[in-house]
Amino acid sequence: MEDGDKYPLGDKDIPKEGEFRSHGWVKTINSIPGIITLAIAACFIVAVILYLIIQINLNSKVEDKNTNLFKYIIDYFSLNKEEEDKTRPARIIVFLVLATGLVLIVFYNINKMRDRPRISVTLVDNYMSPTIQLCPRLESSIEYAVYTEKINDVFKEETTIDSLPNLTSYDPIYKPDYLTTCYLFNYTSLPRPKKDVGMFYAFIFNQTTYVDVFIGDDKNTDWSLSIPESKGYGDVGSQTILSYGLIFYTETRYIELDKSHIHRGFQCSALTYDLSGFNETRIGIHVPKQVITQVEEPALELADAFGNIGGYISICGLFAFLFGEYGIVTYFSKKGKESDDKGIDGKDAV
Q: Which positions, given as ranges, span the membrane (predicted)?
């Protein structure tokens, strides 16, 4: 079972904001496994190059020839001009085409990894509380601020307002347009919803009045404005309640590729009732169990890039299989040449 402390964004594949795995370049190279793979690949390439250099130097000393890496490749693929071989032009053309293609496909994959992120949409469990601001139209104070995990517990006969846990932490914000004080309940002070349960907050004001309710993300929202506005991609949800209302909101999240910056958007709907005879205003806010999340992902990950390049290298391997020193085409070409030489020698003998 996923833990809200370890995976606050609802999915273990979505790293927390600011941690090492949340960096865009780390996601692109497939995190820790990708770093290990790159290290192994780098060591392998260095080892192969060193091995070739050592072998070429040893062969040069043994055969007393001035051999370098370029000449070694020429000899390996039988591209030297000294030997009469009808397949040499084809080998040269194919070799150049494949070498150019390898450079281009490596460049394409590296450039693609830096391209615009892909967007994936997923439904995740909700472990994040909203930030709630309550702005009464008349000077009114909160008598009760409580919460419970299940909304239907509020309607049970044995449930009383005094039996529910209290919400005691809030910030008063005076707004001139309201001529009264608004109450801001920060998401860090509100109990978080739990897996498959959600959460329900209830507020009671000491007189009947219109109350504007704003639900948003504290990190990117200016709550001092008459109508709070978000600075990011998300929107602040709003709903006006008179006397009695139950607010149900839906939340969407947008998570950036680099550092997993979160942008939260809220949309509200409500069930309202006229209970003005009670001379109080009751507001309930239901927190959803799950939220729709849009996640930026790398346009191309390292594993996919390796797959593309590896597939192309396998094609290059086919060239070596056909035209290499011990390739099929090279073998039959040399065999045909030997037959021609024997035929010429036989005619000379006659």
A: 32-54, 90-110, 309-332
Residue 143 lies in a domain: yes
**Does the pLDDT at position 169 exceed 60?**
yes
- Confidence (pTM): 0.73
Instruction: Look at residue 320 and tell me if it is in a domain.
Output: no
Q: Kindly state the tokens that stand for 201.
A: 């907050």
Asked if 134 and 210 count as a contact pair (C-beta separation under 8 A), the reply is no
Residue 226 maps to a domain: yes
Alpha-carbon span 105 to 100, nearest angstrom = 9
What is the CATH number for 129? Answer: 2.60.470
Rounded to the nearest integer, the mean pLDDT of the chain is 81
Portion of the chain with pLDDT greater than 90, in percent: 20
Rounded distance, CA 201 to CA 129, Å?
10
Do 174 and 198 form a contact (C-beta atoms < 8 A)? no
Structural domain boundaries enclosing 141? 122-297
Cα 210 from Cα 201, distance rounded (Å): 18
Cα–Cα nearest to 217, from 197, 191, 237, 239: 237
